[in-house]
Amino acid sequence: MRIDLAYDGTDFRGWAAQPGLRTVQGELEQALTTVLRLPHPPTVTCAGRTDAGVHARGQVAHVDLDSHPGVVERRLRRIVPADIRIKSVTAAPQHFDARFAALERRYVYRMTDHQAGPDPLARGMIVAHPRPLAVDLMNAAAQRLLGEHDFAAFCKQREGATTIRTLLDLRTVRGGETLATTVRADAFCHSMVRSLMGCLVAVGDRRYPPEFAAEILAAGRRDPRVKVMPAHGLVLEEVRYPEPEGLAERVVQARQRRDGQP
Predict the structure, then answer these.
(1) What's the pLDDT band for 256 if we cut at 50, 70, 90?
(2) What is the mean pLDDT of the chain?
């Protein structure tokens, strides 16, 4: 079955279950175990394994259970903590896989460069920057990163994992006191979005020209000049999937790509 959910990542150590730590996956699996009286926690797989402190409005997960989705939805809503919202639980079509069937993920990173800092009521989701940022320079740098590339320079390395991704959209818009950067890709590697933001902020701060982004990308390795930006400004907003008849093909394609196969 498919679970659509949202969460405030402030008090979570990320999505992935870790012994002795509070995580979204851990809370969800424990809640399912409790409401369905299961002998062992089921494995819940998500579309985007968010890091500690990252939020989600449009997270998608799947779990293999025989229970009626409507029953699971009602019971989960009664038991999950207040910083998790169960938006819906539905029967998943054949071949649905929350991770490998996804066509793209859309994140938004929010900042403010206002001299007074962020709105106190929104400070848990907006990162403060102490100087004015040049949005036009940030967008000029972003253009140099679009398309399919090896994003090793923007990722924390994981053994056996490919860092080749297709960046579909990277653009920053100023709205009032807030700068919102939309980031869309077929998938993201570990810390990729926050590293991309570190690069754009370095350019927007006028420390480097827009060509700096292409320089970092081409180097193929982490650069100390690119900061990994704070987690709380990042929100997973949406995950897109193909129509049901295209799920099986998409899963095969995504698995081959993650394994580094042609």
Answers:
(1) confident
(2) 95
Candidates 53, 57, 51, 30; CA nearest to 42 is 30
17 lies in which domain range? 2-90
- What is the C-alpha separation between 43 and 32, in angstroms, rounded? 10
Coil/strand/helix, residue 52: coil
Residues 193 and 110 in one domain: yes
CA 138/CA 122 separation, integer angstroms: 23
Q: Are 22 and 79 in a shared domain?
A: yes
Q: How many CB atoms lie within 10 A of CB 209?
A: 12
User: What is the reported pLDDT for 182?
Assistant: 99
Tally of domains in the chain: 2
Q: How many CB atoms lie within 10 A of CB 40?
A: 7
199, burial (CB in 10 Å: exposed 0-12, middle 13-18, buried 19+): buried
Which residues are identified as catalytic?
51
Q: Same structural domain for residues 74 and 114?
A: no
- For residue 89, count CB atoms less than 10 angstroms from its CB and return exposed for 0-12, middle for 13-18, buried for 19 or more: buried
> Which CATH number do you get for residue 207?
3.30.70.660
Give residue-wise pLDDT tens across range 118-151.
999 999 999 999 999 999 999 999 999 999 999 9
Residue 77 and residue 132 in one domain: no
